[in-house]
Amino acid sequence: MTEEAKESISTKRGLRRNEIVPFTLEFLRGRWFALFASFLIMASSGSVYLFGTYSNEIKTTLGYDQTTINLLGFSKDVGANVGILTGLIAETTPTWFVLLLGAALNFGGYFMIWLAVTGKIAKPMVWQMCVYMAIGANSQNFANTVGVVTAVKNFPESRGSLIGLLKGYAGLSGAIITQVYLAVYGNDSKSLIFLIACLPTALSLIFIYTIRTMGPVKHPNEHRVFNQFLLLSIVLALLLMVKTLIERKITFSKGTNAVITTVLCLLLFASLYISIREALVVWNIKKQPPTAITIEQSKSQVVESSEETSTKPTSSEQVDEKIEKSCFLTVFDKPERGMDYTILQALTSIDMLILLVTTIFGLGASLTAVDNLGQIGESLGYDNRTVTTFVSIISIWNFFGRVFSGFVSEILMVKYKLPRPLMMTMVLLFSCIGFLLIAFPFPGALYIASVIIGITFGAQLPLIFAIISELFGLKYYATLFNCAQIASPLGSYIFKVKVTGAIYDTEALKDVAAKGLVAKQLTCIGSHCYRLSFIILASVSCFGALCSLILVMRTRKFYQSDIYQKFRENADTL
Predict the structure, then answer these.
(1) What is the pLDDT of residues 167-201, one digit of tens each?
(2) What does pTM read for this prediction?
(3) How many CB atoms lie within 10 A of CB 336?
(4) CA distance 308 to 20
(5) Per DSSP, what are the bridge partners of residue 127?
(6) How far is CA 361 from CA 64, 78, 374, 496, 551, in A?
(7) In this predicted model, what pLDDT tens digit does every residue of 211-247 receive, in sequence order?
């Protein structure tokens, strides 16, 4: 039976009354509801993006100076990016435990911060606040690991599109939580901390037994379904962008924010309708009587499986083989690309080394540009409202970069057999244009640069995560993609502190000396402030593109093959 015929049959009939309860139970245990749950969890995992919103409340109520606030911000970054332990826990424990542990860390960290800010406990020591912040921020790694890893294993043939969608929702999560907070509490930063402690925790507990690895199932027009999810996410992003830009001109009332939040929730839950519809497609196809073709296919599959079983070694032989070869002995005995690597095999492979170097240079440069955008706008003479608009623009285009990099790279790979690292190369080269626009600005250049940097910054992580899953397999994917995530803050520290920050201070001191003043606070005004820094960042990004191009050359034969074939063969047949 063809895929078109299956879909035609499945959409012509609904549910009988006696089928409602069995279908509901199967849906709640199925992969489509798990995907919907992953969307919601990722959409609420943006606590790290909101530090700038509530950090002033911490500074005021606890009497901290800016240095201490920066230390808290550093603790947040460390907690958010050190996820290797999360990956190892995910490899060895069930999904519900990972979600439960993430929920406990989120609530424990942010609830203690809320208690401190509201004066319900004695003023904590600075190191204690740093620990609370790191614990709360680290919880997002648990949500990301569960959401991304289970979704990729359940929908391996759409992994690029899926990772883009999930990371896109994560990118919008800060704006989503902010909108819910404005509708419920108004403008109360202390309540925002309480909401961050409760909302992600509640969602993780609600879906604790829902999100799990179930394996792939053959489905008619799966890619079309993900295009519909993409359309919903784009509408959601546009709503948030329009609301953010209008808010620069007028102030919304609490009632207006409540209406906007209601529309936002309807858009989020529209994906539930799509999930129910697709689960119904699967349900109806399963109920169809087998045709002669499917019976003959089943017979041939049985014969093939029996032949494979007869040629497989016995269990005792397999045990002996496992005893003979430990992970340390096989570290340099690499399997073919696309097979399941061990963690040590992957981390010591040349492909992973090239990918990590690309991440350090490419993503590190982009993250540096994003973090300095406020000061760049100030140095070029823009007012505070315009600078805030730049930041809003870059966050929205960050979302578009995430979702489109996943979908476009998937099309290029499946339809034209182009290696996914080639998309990474093009993204890094495109980012150089944004860096050079800042180095050599003209009127309106910063608007264009913020769009380019936002898109290219968002595009990189989904591509990196997808490439890792394709080259090194899915068995230890939870640990491997968390290892790659560490490269980002490492690159950011090098280029932000040692390069951009040092050059900015040098230029500011030159300005002070030229005016014959004494430096009280280093502030640099003019296009020269970031010129050398961003020429260096453009060069660094070009080097990252060159590294990515080397990976393209190394993997082109692999991507010219049908890398999803084994997943189609192992998928459950409808």
Answers:
(1) 889 888 888 888 888 888 877 778 888 999 999 99
(2) 0.83
(3) 8
(4) 40
(5) none
(6) 34, 19, 22, 12, 15
(7) 988 877 777 778 889 989 999 999 999 998 888 778 7
